[in-house]
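For this section, I looked closely at a protein sequence along with its fold in token form, which I now present.
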Amino acid sequence: MTTPQAGPGSLLPGPAASADAQQARFPERELLGALLQRPERVAELRGWLEPGDFVDPAHRAVYATVSALHERGRLRPVPADPAALSNPDQRVRQTITANVVAVTEAMERGEFTDVRVENYRELMTGLYIAGAAAGAVPTGLYGQIVLELSVRRQVQELGVNLEAAVASTDPFTVDAASVQSGLREVENRLMNLVAQTRRSAGEVMGTLSPSARPSPPVVPTTPLPARLVERKERALVHAVIADSAHHGLLEQLRPQDFASAALATAWRAVQNVRKRGEPVTPVTVWWESGRLAASAPSGGTLSPEELVEMRSSPQHATAVDGAVTVVARASLTRIASRAREEIERAAADRSLDAGKVIGVTSEAAARVDQHVSRLLGTTGVPMALPAEANPLSRRLAGEPAPGMVPRAR
């Protein structure tokens, strides 16, 4: 495998090379410069700020190396007096220089990172200058800024993965195991983000799970053709009007699962007629559809001719099963797409802090999970845990995780 390459402070090609990533490099550079001046302060960040939280691969390498060298006692302590850093004497300068050299040589040897930098000396000189110019800085606060930027990037990736979780290589099937696995991965990664942000605020928690680092986003498959989806939706409305044996679907599929407004209205009309104990006929469905359209205009209703035609020829059970799968798959895709868009908006909203961004992401993921449980239930797949049993929901609500205790102030 080719070893990743990074220029001195440059970004590797890919998602990291965005305008947001370029801006994120600013606090990263200042934080690393401060750590080169006072490497012992990396201990304040250990346990909640990780190399993967840095968008620049070269910065990840520096942070991983500084942290590892300090943990092994291979970096010299620097006097804590801020005045000694703003106007260092020869002894302080020699100590800082020795530490910079130790970090540079460890990176060149690849002791603690696989990232390869084009020019180590240039990279480290730039960070050294940034740290010297900044003087004494609030290392913990800078670390929290780097973490929040990381959280925003990660939840955007999770939005893409959430959408991909409902996709399938076969557009005419829904892989229940794959969908549930994808949603559990999103949940696990969100729980790790909760743990990181809480640690940064002063809480002590157990070890992060191995899934803390984000996996590459998965590109969803192409949505089902709109005409196919409408045809299958029409087949389901046809089925429940023509044969009461299919009325069980009325308890599982909802009007919002239909992309066609007219067919969604017809579905709700059948539900209402049946709930009142009235016979489901073209006339009763037409009449109820008119009432619904008058109270909440939604884009039309089925004509009397269409409803009569649906009564005349019952749908075969196999055709109904196939229609359920397509409609469920299309509905899940729309729901997940809306969730991704909501997550992206939250990640881009700087007025929301990291905890709120994670909360929005968690709520969006929970809605997708609920729809997955309901819709996959139409094919006999066991339902997922209810929302109140979701461990992530409990963590976000403030329930301590196992092993979490408040840090002494």
In short: The chain has two domains: 5-137, 147-409.
